[in-house]
Amino acid sequence: MKKLQDTYNVVSNEQLCAKFYRLCIDAKPVALAARPGQFIHIRVRNSLEPFFRRPFSIYRAKRHVEILYEVIGTGTQVLASKKKGDILDVLGPVGTPFCLPPKGIKHVVMIAGGVGAAPFLFLSDVLKERRYQMTLLYGGRTKGHVFNMEEFKKNGCKIFTSTDDGSVGVKGRVAVLFSKIDPDPGKTFIYTCGPRPMMASVQDFAREHELQGQASCEEVMACGLGACLGCSIKTAKGYKTVCGDGPAFDLHELIFES
Amino acid sequence: MNITVKIGNAGFQNPVTVASGTFGHSEKYYNLQEVKKLGAIIPKTVTLKAQEGNPPPRIAETPSGMLNAIGLENPGADRFIEDKLPALKKIGVPLVISILGHTDEEFRILAEKFNAVGGISALELNLSCPNLGKKVLVAQDPEATCRVVRLVKDISKYPVIAKLSPNVTDIVTIAKTAEEAGADALSLINTFSGMVIDIKTRKSVLGNVTGGLSGPAIRPMAVYMVYKTAKEVKIPIIAMGGIMTAEDALQYIIAGATMVAVGTANFINPQAPLDVLNGIKAYMKKNKIEDIKEIIGNILT
């Protein structure tokens, strides 16, 4: 049986653009067990600061496990300092993965805000094998939040980009790209991940057009195993843990409050 | 080497357990062969009726600690007994069931329900519950502590452990009251009341506004309370508060604890309870200690 938690070597840690990094970990057992939408829970160093592990969506799981991250606080600062050969304490893969669209739907739209793109390369790897048509709507704050999306293109994704300041792509929030979606509930399925207000706008759009979808959520997390019940969020079915019941939820079950 | 300990008439193969609220609900993830090695398991507090818990955010990271206001989310006693207890019993480790009643009557019904199911080793009373008609918690009021402990002790077929709150002027007074009321042991301590404010929004970071602090941040205060209390009571103490390693646990044992519970550390390192157990054994071997009782409360001054 694969160990729930183990230590692995860093293969590479590359800065993709001003804001984002991509960390590659030599964790084949994790890669083999992983499914799109799941996450790994990393103890960034053996110290009390930062105290919690940090959860990261799995960006890619082939020979290695990769994550996409933005440097926000202490945890990601420490992570950004990791070099090839450094050892990382990784727990996972954990969490409920994305589900596939209902039968008959062959076009998916992935809507990502910033580092919310993190679960989607792995998802596109799997959907490509299953011959889905894919569109990626990507919204970043500035050009510092836009990175090379060649691998998404290679998987056959049509990509549209927006930035809040218009420095790359269309000016505005990712909602300005919703016109690219074929709003036919019999043809299109949505996956989204990003800031809560952004996912709320996706939910509004999906509701209006009766599109089904899935959303990957984030919350401050402690155990990552469904034990502490600390990362619960509000859903139509009561409080649900992001780490165990999610991160992937039915888009329409989520209750977003300002 | 003897590391067995006793609470009332219940025996435990070793002194290491897991603190209530930090283990369980997720049996599928744990390697049960490893969990079997623990002295006991204390699952998350069970209330009479299901509780949905507090609005999010429920937790915050603090320096060397964790602030939480989960709100005792649990499925209620009947569903716990039906859905959770069978799997917990299957592990084969003594179970200490943590219960919390919002009234005396609820404590009584809970005690009776667990009397009826059998197969558990002890009841832990979570006394950080409202004290009806008063603004303080039961654990903050010696009279109420005495009343609840006596009530449960009178009917429980299991040893009764009173879990005390550190948010009191003098924990020794409450501890002695619980002992006089018949408690077989004390759990020291629950979380310290705390708060974190987001200065950008000028709001508390927790949905519940205030919460309870745990983790290494509180350890020296908890060790102090165990030390002070152990000198004044005869009943055993189960100590908890920021135990991450065997060294931390040994501080509590030397201060006077008979058992130690790993809590928040479970969230950081799921191996922590076993690391603590192995570390205690290694310490005893290195220091040629034959029986753990030789060091319980054996602090040199």
Report on the architecture of this protein:
- The complex is a heterodimer of chains A (258) and B (301).
- By secondary structure, chain A is an alpha/beta fold.
- Chain A has helices spanning 28-33, 74-80, 120-129, 150-154, 196-208, and strands at 5-15, 20-26, 39-43, 54-57, 60-61, 65-70, 87-94, 107-113, 133-140, 157-163, 170-171, 188-193, 212-216, 232-235, 238-241, 248-250.
- In chain A, the strands form three sheets. A seven-stranded antiparallel β-sheet of chain A has the order 4-3-7-1-2-6-5. Chain A has a seven-stranded mixed β-sheet with strand order 11-10-9-8-12-13-16, sandwiched between helices.
- With 301 residues, chain B is an alpha/beta fold.
- Chain B has nine helices and 16 strands.
- Chain B has helices spanning 32-35, 77-91, 104-117, 142-155, 171-180, 219-230, 246-255, 265-268, 272-286, and strands spanning 5-7, 10-12, 16-18, 46-47, 59-62, 65-68, 96-100, 122-126, 160-164, 185-188, 192-194, 197-198, 203-204, 211-214, 237-240, 259-262.
- In chain B, the strands form four sheets. Chain B has an eight-stranded parallel β-sheet with strand order 3-16-15-10-9-8-7-4.
- The longest helix of chain B is centred in the first third of the chain and has 15 residues, at 77-91.
- The chains are: A alpha/beta (258), B alpha/beta (301).
Question: And the CATH topology of the largest domain in chain A?
Answer: Rossmann fold
Structural class of chain A: alpha/beta
CATH architecture of the largest domain in chain A: 3-Layer(aba) Sandwich
The helix/strand series of chain A, from N terminus to C terminus, equals EEHEEEEHEEHEHEEEHEEEE
Largest sheet of chain A: 7 strands, antiparallel
Residue share in helix of chain A: 10-25%
The major sheet of chain B is characterized as: 8 strands, parallel
Fold-level CATH name of chain B = TIM Barrel
* Proportion in β-strands of chain B: 15-25%
State the secondary-structure class of chain B.
alpha/beta
Number of DSSP-assigned strands of chain A: 16
User: Order of strands across the biggest sheet of chain B?
Assistant: 3-16-15-10-9-8-7-4
Rg estimate of chain A, integer Å: 17 Å
**Proportion of β residues of chain A?**
25-35%
> Tally the helices of chain A: what do you get?
5
